[in-house]
From TrEMBL:
Family matches, as PROSITE patterns: ZF_FYVE
Gene Ontology molecular function terms on file: metal ion binding
Record-linked Pfam families: FYVE, ZFYVE21_C
Organism lineage: Eukaryota, Metazoa, Cnidaria, Anthozoa, Octocorallia
Gene3D superfamilies (UniProt xref): Zinc finger FYVE domain-containing protein 21, C-terminal (2.30.29.160), Zinc/RING finger domain, C3HC4 (zinc finger) (3.30.40.10)
Species of provenance: Paramuricea clavata (Red gorgonian)
Signal sequence bounds: none
Protein name: Zinc finger FYVE domain-containing 21-like
Length: 224
């Protein structure tokens, strides 16, 4: 199957979908099925009965059935691959706002990348970035060792002593990725540590860690 994406028209709107599942971003989710109209005689939120004037509307984010008043917002849903704003309920509009912040800001930070130390004792810095093509892999260093996000088991944080940073709160300065390894009997663990204070690139690596933490939350919520 050819790589790339195809603009697909459905009853919910236009969506840009990958031609091959291996090109699907793990940060996206499938469009939920619409609840059948005949199952609902009233809006699931306000409980108002449907009639000729109060019509049924489906939220594109959750698939539930609402009246026009309770499902009157139109927002972008990049996580579901919609290309135009679509109708959502009030609750899903709040969820979509947080998701869109990740796609608009954090995802760009991850793709741009930052410099890190790899492992517990390495003093050599390498550039790490998210694969911009499908967002499935973290590319580590020039040789592009890979952290496969679709095989992620756990992610642990590394925190500095807050007193050493002149702060009262711990600062997350690293991530430990534990992933499935099909060629080995045991999982593979890779540790990324931010650059030291006063080093050029320290702020970029800390911002990358923050962005990745948001991405990991989305990944685990999606069940990947």
């Amino acid at each position: 199957m050819a790589s790339g994406k195809t603009l697909t028209k459905g009853k919910s709107g236009l969506r840009m979908l990958p031609n091959d599942d291996k090109d699907r971003s793990p940060f996206t989710i499938e469009e939920p099925p619409w609840q059948p109209d005949e199952k609902y005689t009233s809006c699931v939120k306000c409980k108002g009965s449907f009639d000729f004037w109060k019509r049924r509307h489906h939220c594109r984010r959750c698939g539930n059935v609402f009246c026009g008043t309770c499902c009157d917002q139109k927002v972008l849903l990049p996580r579901l691959n919609f290309v135009d704003p679509v109708r959502v309920c009030e609750e899903c509009a709040v969820v979509a706002k947080k998701e869109n912040e990740f796609f608009d800001k954090s995802l760009k930070v991850l793709i741009h990348g930052a410099d890190f130390y790899v492992g517990e004792s390495s003093e050599e810095t390498v550039h790490c970035k998210l694969n911009h093509k499908n967002h499935r892999e973290i590319l580590v260093g020039k040789n592009h060792d890979v952290i496969d996000l679709t095989k992620l088991i756990t992610v642990k944080t590394i925190s500095d002593n807050p007193e050493s940073q002149g702060s009262t709160l711990p600062v997350v300065t690293g991530l430990i990725f534990k992933c499935k390894n099909e060629s080995k009997n045991s999982p593979e663990t890779i540790q990324l540590r931010a650059l030291e204070p006063l080093q050029d690139g320290r702020k970029a690596s800390l911002n990358w860690i923050i962005a990745m933490q948001k991405g990991i939350k989305i990944l685990f919520e999606a069940g990947n």
